[in-house]
Design a protein that fits this description.
Layout: H1 2-5, H2 8-16, E1 22-25, H3 27-36, E2 41-44, H4 59-87, E3 93-96, E4 108-111, H5 123-134, E5 139-142, E6 164-167, E7 183-188, H6 195-206, E8 214-217, E9 227-230, E10 233-236, H7 241-249, E11 251-256, H8 260-269, E12 272-275, H9 282-293, H10 328-331
Parallel strand pairs: 1-2, 3-4, 4-5, 5-6, 7-8, 7-11, 8-10, 11-12
Antiparallel strand pairs: 9-10
């Protein structure tokens, strides 16, 4: 879902520059974008069906086991792209981490913050494979600052990369608003199953002892929005962008995964946060440690969390926004 939400600013920019975006996605990402852009054409493309292992130490093994399915999906993606190109007057393709979504006759862009893919002892291999995929695209757009004061750290900054790199600055669908505080804590869940549900159950139990008003957003995109009020906790299954923007702006502290899209949103809104990285996901663990070391936001592992750990956030600075203006005129010249 994070990949879908960070495309929202780019889709809006395309519309502003008189392009007609065609949305292609699957699952909750597709449902979210259809809700955000009900007037745009939207089509379903093959799903990677990524799920995470129940145990953190099985993460890498499961990724290896799922790799044949991934390769088959990439081939199916390419066929889907051929069909879309034949049916629409496509002048450009923008792929957010969709390996097979490109076309040899049409300018194709790959969006990623992971020029380096962390996988423990096999980081060199996973990074090299990812870079080979990126090199098949005409350009690579990195949603981060170019300099040392950045959000992605070693993930999005490497030397001697052959493909044309363009740094967009952090991408967020939100704007900072000076609104009166309504929630002491906003829980923002996301990510693949079963770990999303594991964390949901743990947090709902722990938050019974939290002193303050809590807004709990499950991150489950469903046909109907549901709202459940229980004492000091209000639970939503999902929120659309406009409502979520206000909710985050009205919240004192954000508790979430350390996913990169969430981090970009928190930086844009200059919020204080506490992170619980998805078990076994090297990228989220790296980012959580990075911001902990920089005294921006604390974190802990999922199995170690208890409600008292949120007090650590008082000793951290929270995120600060850095102005970064993207020249979409130049960026879209490729098309």
């Amino acid at each position: 879902m994070g990949h879908a939400t960070r495309c929202i600013p780019i889709i809006n920019a395309l519309i502003t520059h008189n392009f007609e975006p065609v949305i292609a996605s699957d699952g909750i990402g597709l449902e979210l974008l259809k809700k955000e852009f009900p007037k745009l054409k939207a089509t379903e493309i093959p799903s990677y069906n990524i799920t995470y292992a129940k145990k953190a130490n099985s993460f890498k093994l499961k990724m290896i086991k799922d790799s044949p399915h991934l390769l088959k999906t990439i081939k199916r993606e390419k066929k889907a792209v051929e069909t879309i190109v034949e049916g629409e007057q496509i002048s450009g393709i923008i792929s957010d981490n969709r390996f097979g979504v490109r076309h040899k006759d049409i300018p194709s862009v790959f969006i990623t913050h992971q020029l380096r893919v962390l996988s423990g002892s096999t980081t060199w291999l996973s990074s090299k494979l990812h870079q080979q995929i990126i090199s098949k695209f005409d350009e690579c757009w990195v949603p981060d600052h170019m300099g040392t004061n950045n959000l992605s750290g070693n993930l999005g900054h490497i030397e001697d990369f052959k493909t044309t790199l363009k740094y967009l600055g952090p991408l967020s669908r939100f704007e900072k608003q000076n609104l009166e505080k309504k929630y002491d804590l906003l829980v923002l869940l996301s990510g693949p199953e079963p770990q999303r549900t594991f964390l949901e159950e743990k947090l709902l139990f722990e938050l019974n002892d939290f002193e303050g008003d809590v807004l709990f957003i499950k991150g489950k995109i469903e046909n109907e929005q549901t709202i459940i009020k229980n004492d000091h906790i209000t639970v939503y299954n999902f929120m659309t962008s406009q409502a979520l923007e206000k909710a985050i702006n009205k919240s004192e502290l954000i508790l979430s995964r350390s996913g990169y899209t969430t981090i970009m949103d928190l930086a844009k809104l200059e919020k204080k946060a506490f992170f619980i990285p998805t078990p076994g996901q090297f990228e989220q663990e790296y980012l959580a440690k990075k911001f902990n070391e920089e005294k921006t936001a604390p974190y802990c592992n999922q199995e170690d969390f208890n409600i008292s750990k949120l007090n650590k956030a008082n000793d951290f600075s929270g995120f600060k926004s850095i102005n970064y203006n993207v020249s979409y005129d130049k960026l879209f010249n490729l098309f």
